[in-house]
Amino acid sequence: MIRSSVSNCPVPADQQPLNEYEQLKGSWLFRDSTLHWREYITKILWIWGLSWLVAGPVAAASFPPQKYFAHFILCGAGGASIGVLLAVVRLYLGWFYVCDRLCSGTVFYEESGWYDGQTWTKPQEVLNRDRLIVAYEIKPILRRLQFTFAGLAGMFVIGTIVWHLL
C-alpha cells in the first residue's frame, strides 16, 4: 500500500527523502556514523590521527618538541581535533538535512532546474513511515554526533586547563 503512494509521487527519485536517506547511509563517511560505538570511535581516531599530518608540523614549528614537548603535544592534539570537528560538523549537517526532509509533511523538489521548484504533500502513510525512520534510525545518529561534539568540547576545555597549568 505504501508503494502505491510512493509510485504516484511526482518527486524525482534522487530527490525523494527516503532515497536521500538510503544514499546518505551508504556513502563512505556517513556510513561510519552508523557503526557500533567501538568502530565509530576507531574511525574518529583515524581522522584525528590523519589530521596530525598537518597539525604536527605546524605545532613543531611553533613549539619545538625537544624544548616544549607538552606544549607541542597539546597544540598538535588541538590542531588535529579541528579535523575531527570539521568531519563531525559535516556528518551532523548531512544527517540533519535528511532528518528534516523525512520529518516534513511536504517535500520541495525541482523538476528540471532551480527555476521550477514544486512542493509535494506526503500521504499520511508515507509521513508515518518517514517519521519512524527518523525516530529509530536518524535520531540515535544525531545524538551520537552531539555526544561527539560534547566530547570534543570537553577535550578542548581540559587541554586549555592543562596548557595554563604548564
UniProtKB/TrEMBL annotation:
<dbReference type="InterPro" id="IPR009631">
    <property type="entry name" value="CGLD27-like"/>
</dbReference>
<feature type="transmembrane region" description="Helical">
    <location>
        <begin position="147"/>
        <end position="165"/>
    </location>
</feature>
<keyword id="KW-0812">Transmembrane</keyword>
<keyword id="KW-1133">Transmembrane helix</keyword>
<protein>
    <submittedName>
        <fullName>CGLD27 family protein</fullName>
    </submittedName>
</protein>
<dbReference type="Pfam" id="PF06799">
    <property type="entry name" value="CGLD27-like"/>
</dbReference>
<keyword id="KW-0472">Membrane</keyword>
<feature type="transmembrane region" description="Helical">
    <location>
        <begin position="69"/>
        <end position="93"/>
    </location>
</feature>
<feature type="transmembrane region" description="Helical">
    <location>
        <begin position="44"/>
        <end position="63"/>
    </location>
</feature>
